[in-house]
Design goal:
Layout: H1 2-33, E1 34-36, H2 48-58, H3 66-72, H4 82-92, E2 100-102, E3 121-122, E4 129-131, E5 168-171, H5 175-180, E6 183-203, E7 216-222, E8 228-233, E9 244-265, E10 271-283, E11 296-302, H6 304-307, H7 311-321, E12 326-332, H8 338-342, H9 349-359, E13 364-367, H10 375-392, E14 397-402, H11 413-430, E15 435-438, H12 439-449, H13 467-481, H14 496-511
Parallel strand pairs: 11-12, 11-13, 13-14, 14-15
Antiparallel strand pairs: 1-2, 3-10, 4-6, 5-10, 6-9, 6-10, 7-8, 7-9
Amino acid sequence: MKQFAKRLLMLLLVVAMCVLPGFATIAQATEELSYYHGDVNSSGDIDKYDYILVKRYCLKTVTFDDDQMARGDVNKSGEIDKYDYILIKRHCLKTFEIPKVSTGSGDNDNDQSIKDDPTYTNVALNKTYDKAPLYPSYGPSYPDTGNKEATDGIQPPSDGKYSNAAFMAFNTGGDYYRANGYVDITVDLGDVYELDKFVIHFGSKKLSNGIGAPAFARVLVSNDGDNWYKAGVTFHEDTNDTSVVASVLELEDTLTARYVQYRIVAGTYTWMFVSEVEAFGIKAEKAVEYPESDPISFLFIGNSATYYFNVPDKLLFIAETANVEIDVTYCCIGSAYLSQFADANDETRGKLLRSKIAEKDYDYIVLQDNSNCDYADTKAALDILVPYLRSAEPNAELLLYERYSSNTDPSQRPVSGKRLHNAYTQLAKDFNIEKQAHVSDAFLLCYEKYPSIELHHTDNSHHGEGAGAYLIASVMAIEFLGIDLDDVSYTAGLNATTVAALKEIAKLACTEGYPFK
């Protein structure tokens, strides 16, 4: 009997050795069936590296295999596009959850879209709004009776002219734009709605030379008119085919809001023409709180060396692709001096600064002076500004933006660049300011190493919309936020070779600096 029991036990062991690996294989295969949409690199989790990969795919700098294509199509649209990397980013920020799914289970998503509701429509239609001032020279040409023309549903024809009364005209030369870095239209929907799509219709480059669709519009929403949440940024392509282009933001999840603000940010063009703003949704049962957000808040004090082509916003986009959330506020007037901001009696600049300080608390305050100032001029201004800012914003860290030379004679830029570098470096020591963006160094390094890269605007004085602004923002990203540019996929529309060169220069400026003689 004992021998039989032994033989039976041995037989069972042999069978187990043969069968158990099969069970393990089946279990492993079952486990491999489950994965996250968004986990493109198959790490087992969704993180910033997946966001970067999808962004690079959209920019056509990487290719995906079939498995990556399946994982990257988060919204199940059949392709990978900008909406997928937006969802991955929101998952990383914990404002949206991408569920774990099985490759063999199919899509079991039975959620009904609000678009299926028969009452789903443009709820901004015929609603009133507030807006930034129209540019004085064009404002009278486009009367906006009762602030309703931008929501009356009337569009210019596809071959319309910029003189069409359906347009409103804004200009980057206006004080409002220069002070804020945008112009805005804020619609009161009259009640709280559940929204998932926002559209702003811009005049396109077909209208005339000097007119074209702005870079984007940032959409903010509010349930009460006091607390605002960033819904996202609109996307579009400018065109010569029609006089109006629709810039669209579509959300995967809905947000409730009574108020919608469209902050229009210019790109290359000086003129910004707007015909209609829209918000699509249905009546909400109640207002829903927004996801928690605690961005790093920046205040930029300066002039056109800051606000030209929206350098702070380029810093924001660089930070965003490195999974760092920031918020930027402009306090910039063309040709302004820091001494004017320091003067509490200055009706324009001094008043503007104090109004910005009263708006909210800041984590960082960036200071940039006029290029005509020498060390003594800026020090005299900071003798007033620094104590004021440290008293008014005790938790904010002061930063210096060592601007580039504005000299139109390239042969003189090393001289003025050295003057700016020395002045800001000494000022940092004088006022115990630890972080300084060495932009002057970066521009001089780029002139020498990559002379074919055009850093300046057509006036040969200001930085340009592409490479110049991108280089400034890249230096700030390193110096102010400690961002590794290798994690940054934002390109500002520049080609990969130029972006790589500018990143290299930014790193060099922040580590070794320019070898001044």
